[in-house]
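Figure caption, in words: inputs first, then the predicted bound structure.
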Amino acid sequence: QAPTPTQVIEAFEGVQGPIRTHRPSHPKGTCAAGFFEGTAEGARLSVSPTFGGQRIPTVIRFGVGGGPTAADTSRSTRSLSIRFQVPDGTPWDMANISVPIFGAPTPEALVEGLRVRRPDPATGRPNQEAINAFVAANPKTTLQGRLLAANAPPASWATTPYWGVSTFRFRGADGEVRPARWVFEPVAGTQRLSEEQTRSLPSDFLAEELRGRVAQGPAAFDMMLIFPQAGDDLNDPTAAWPDDRQRVSVGRLTVTEVAPGPGGACDRISFLALANAPGVEFSDDPTLRARPAPYALSQVKRTRPQ
Ligand code: HEM
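Bound structure (protoporphyrin IX containing FE present):
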């Protein structure tokens, strides 16, 4: 049975302590802004006004996975969250990460994985035997961590791809509904830190790097839809699709401004309006429907007056 929103938040809080000011996931981040322009292929593949071709203002948040003080040199996820402020429609949100897969196949596995890592009040430490037993019974929850450990961290928030991870259903101008995933490919190319940089860079280098970069000119990402072939798993966000799947460019995100310091327009919002029907609709991936309600609960907790 799927966990309730309260159970999801309690599971996060059990590991990280009560949510007071920060998001429980990707707590460290920097606000930015820019615009999105859909391509002709985007308008063909989705009836959502986001892909209509006009310039859509966006609220952007770049984040780092881990705790609120996670090092930018750590092998955790980086994130790119976007709110598309469609002028005559409802806003559409997405929260993308720098790996193509999630760390749990279902909301149940996410919550169980958090619960088992909760520190034991007697010892102050989680029960390692229980964690080992959980991991052995849920091997899919190790796949994302292994992928992250195998790759050096991005050299910039502007030089890594970001995947939406889950499969969505795109309703095209021809009325056809096509399952697809997406990735935001950096126009600057993919660049990772060298071993030496990983050791020498300060733990908060990403925000300054992005400010310096965008001061010279916008940073951009091409949004590519990725289409499955027979046998590709549509409902498991820990199941990667082979790299050779057909990709179509449906729009470009241009980052024109980076907040000068902490806070900004992205801070108090939650990127929870994940579907944008008609045009971009949920698949049966169970982690999609499980997200908006706990995101809202988290947002209430982290934005209420202390
Ligand atoms: C069962 C599935 C999931 C649950 C229960 C969950 C839960 C949460 C919660 C509670 C937050 C904090 C929201 C806020 O305070 O605004 C959050 C943030 C986030 N999640 Fe998830 N999540 C899930 C799946 C995913 C997946 C599949 C991805 C990858 C695409 C993802 C990426 C993120 C990112 C990037 C953030 C930070 C967003 C921001 O910049 O504000 N989550 N998640």
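Residues 186 and 221 are 4 Å apart (CA to CA).
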